[in-house]
Amino acid sequence: MNNSFIYKRATLADFREAIDEYGWVVYEKAINQKLISEIIAGFETSYHLRREIQILNGIEANMEGTLHHLLEKDNFALELLSKLYCHREIRDFLGGNYILNGINGVINSKKSHSYIQNIHRDIRTFSPDSKLMIQMIIVLDDFTIFNGATHFLSGSHKLDIKPEEKHFKAFSKQAVAKKGSIILFDSNLWHAGGVNFTRKPRRALTLGFTKPYIKQQFDYPRFLGYEFGEKIDSDLRQIIGYNARVPASLQEYYRPVESRMYKSDQG
């Protein structure tokens, strides 16, 4: 495929051409297997915790196999984000600084029937002329046509109207990719999780990145603690959202420029 590249060999020009024409890009051999194993190791516990809350709050229908907001102090997320995977491409797409909008997980098993298998896009507002958000999938198990590799309708990031299911099935392509690959795609792109016909789960991480002035799905800085943000490096502070916070009191609002919660370079 013309939108698939070896991560370390790919150029920014490759990304620009592929993301414009297809709306999605596959980077092979991107993440080392040690980190992939660490991510997988934490999936089951993280899923059971979130599943219990889904059931307790009566929202378990169509949520099977989904794990939301996996950024925690003592799991894989900080190490993953600190690697700055596809940093060059994300900055180029969004036109500068960006923040994490969400870091979620998917366990696609043979009996899964979650909302991710519906045709959808990951941003509610169609914005073809203004790039607001980009998505990243981290492949934790080989994506194949048999285990539910994600379907993408190439070029549909330029279409406002949701494609009919018949058209989508006829023309979409599955993102067949090896474990450790990264898939980047325009959030306007219409896509759907595939059906897993195998006995083994097909797992993946899904991350969204936005311009800093877009509201995060989860208040990661407040969840981790404002003091925690002082202990991490500047790149992590930026990505997690510490430079784009909203004051919650007059004491937080009236501050010198250097200590303001929303920095001047966040758009």
CATH architecture: Sandwich
Order of helices and strands: EHEHHEHHEEEHEEEEHHHH
Could you name the CATH topology?
Answer: Jelly Rolls
Through-space gap between termini: 36 Å
Number of strands: 10
What Rg is obtained from the alpha carbons, in whole angstroms?
Answer: 19 Å
What gross morphology would you assign? globular
Number of helices: 10
**What value does the average pLDDT take?**
95
The number of domains = 1
Strand order of the largest sheet: 1-2-8-5-10-4-3
- CATH-defined superfamily: q2cbj1_9rhob like domain
CATH class assignment: Mainly Beta
Class by alpha and beta content: alpha+beta
- Strand fraction band? 15-25%
Largest sheet: 7 strands, mixed
Q: How helical, in percent, are the residues? A: 25-40%
Q: Unreliable segments (pLDDT under 50, ≥5 consecutive)?
A: none
Q: What attributes does this structure have?
A:
Jelly Rolls; 3-stranded antiparallel β-sheet; 10 strands; alpha+beta; 10 helices; 18% strand; globular; 28% helix; 267 residues; 7-stranded mixed β-sheet
List the helices and strands and how they pair.
Layout: E1 4-6, H1 12-21, E2 24-28, H2 33-41, H3 43-56, E3 66-67, H4 77-82, H5 87-94, E4 99-108, E5 133-139, E6 151-152, H6 165-171, E7 173-174, E8 182-186, E9 191-192, E10 202-210, H7 220-224, H8 226-229, H9 234-240, H10 250-253
In short:
This protein has a seven-stranded mixed sheet. The protein has a three-stranded antiparallel sheet with strand order 7-6-9, with no helix packed on it.
